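Work Package 4 report. The design task specified in the project plan requires that, given a folded chain encoded as structure tokens, an amino acid be chosen for each position. We show below one input record used in the internal validation round.
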């Protein structure tokens, strides 16, 4: 807690989070956490300097034990189907569920429960191929531009790969 006041003071003076972390000898993520908490509560250095360590901790919401996360009733089959759509991420689905009040768990808890569900429902099928029999293309992004080597015609490649 001795760094808390110094972190807020240096932040108010305009120092970067990296410089504050170096001067206090702590991780930048810790600096970021304290600054975020102080900003959310509207606490400034003058106010924090008048509080004791335990009062400052309580004011920032640190040191308070939260009850252990209970398992939420989440339909991970529907989540898994949604994740297969383009542009959909776990964070997006989690935030949507929080906004619609479908569940009340942290993002980390959501990801852990989803991974546990995936392990229980793991499906695989071994397929044997001869070398050169098939072509598999893996690319990142929504579309890829492909130029025909002979004609120079460019077209957007989407779901299927065609060889000219």
């Amino acid at each position: 807690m001795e760094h808390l006041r110094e972190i807020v003071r240096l932040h108010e003076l305009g120092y970067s989070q990296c410089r504050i972390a170096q001067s206090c000898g702590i991780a930048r993520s810790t600096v970021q956490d304290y600054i975020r908490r102080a900003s959310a509560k509207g606490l400034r250095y003058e106010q924090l300097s008048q509080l004791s360590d335990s009062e400052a901790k309580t004011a920032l919401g640190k040191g308070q034990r939260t009850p252990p996360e209970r398992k939420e009733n989440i339909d991970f089959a529907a989540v898994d189907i949604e994740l297969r759509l383009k542009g959909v991420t776990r964070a997006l689905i989690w935030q949507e569920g929080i906004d619609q009040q479908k569940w009340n768990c942290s993002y980390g808890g959501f990801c852990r429960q989803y991974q546990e569900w995936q392990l229980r429902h793991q499906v695989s099928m071994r397929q044997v191929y001869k070398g050169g029999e098939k072509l598999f293309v893996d690319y990142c992004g929504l579309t890829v531009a492909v130029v025909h080597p002979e004609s120079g015609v460019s077209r957007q490649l989407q779901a299927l790969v065609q060889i000219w």
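The chain has a mean pLDDT of 83. Validation will be extended to a larger panel in the next phase.
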